[in-house]
Amino acid sequence: MAVVGVGCNGESICSKHVTMLTAVIMNFGVISCCLGHAGGDHDGHLGAKGGSCIESERRALLAIRSDMYDSGKRFSSWIGEDCCNWRGVTCDDNTSHVIKLDLHYLDTHNFYTYDLDDDDDMCFMLEGMGASEVNPALRDLKHLKYLDLSMNNFSDAHIPHMIASLVHLEYLNLSNAMFGGLIPSQLGNLSNLHFLDLGGCGFTDLRADDLEWLSQIPSLKYVDMSFVDLSKATNWLHQVNWIPSLKVLHLGWANLPCVPSPLPPFNLTSIVKLDLSGYSNLNTTILRWLSHASSLIYLNLFDCSGVDIDSLQEKFLE
FRET label pair with 56: which of 100, 186, 293, 303, CA 20 to 30 Å apart? Predict the structure, then answer.
């Protein structure tokens, strides 16, 4: 077994802890406990630019643009009649419908001003950005398969319920977009979704009091809800366990509550990466439950203060 990175309570996992982790999580092929968020696990590509633009969708795009912050060059290519040639827009080759809209924002100046791997720096950068709004015209792009609104400043606005009407979505990225409030359960209607990223930074007040809606999306492979407040979602493990297609799950610093007993039979048969960093209610029962994850190759337990490494080492090496 290869073990690298950072362990619970910020301690380095070296020879002192390798044997203990081997015993606790005996079925893992490789464990990598690392700080920070994992990089993208979805390439997000839906093919080349499509054909000529549909006029009603061109008008919808222009309305959407009108409510998005622009430092001056962001929408410089959004001119002319053919919206399929606009930056961030992809149309279907056969139908000409807009199927991809990528409006993630990063001012290249900020790469030098802020450390984007630091969550606090990320938050400060977003707060200093001009405000954006999600224009209702988004619902007119009914054929969207890919939507990325990440790295914008939506000023703690709620995630619009209308996104749930985009039933063809396969990829939805709202990460680090300064959304707040309760995540709409209507997102559970997005039955074709493979990739869902709602992760943010600690300054925002995005929360979910229940994860039943998440378990209603059977095709999910990637979920990131880092820094989302899940303190009232007492069913989080049971509901996540209903998604056997999940390969990547990030729940770092999500205020995860205690998991009531008994734990369900292990069903996350495809899980490859799991981030539970900052989980103060981690216990040996959950660790034993996770030992059934035979496909798991990445486990982040940074600052999981509910478990004492030394006592675990004694317990599992008896």
Answer: 186
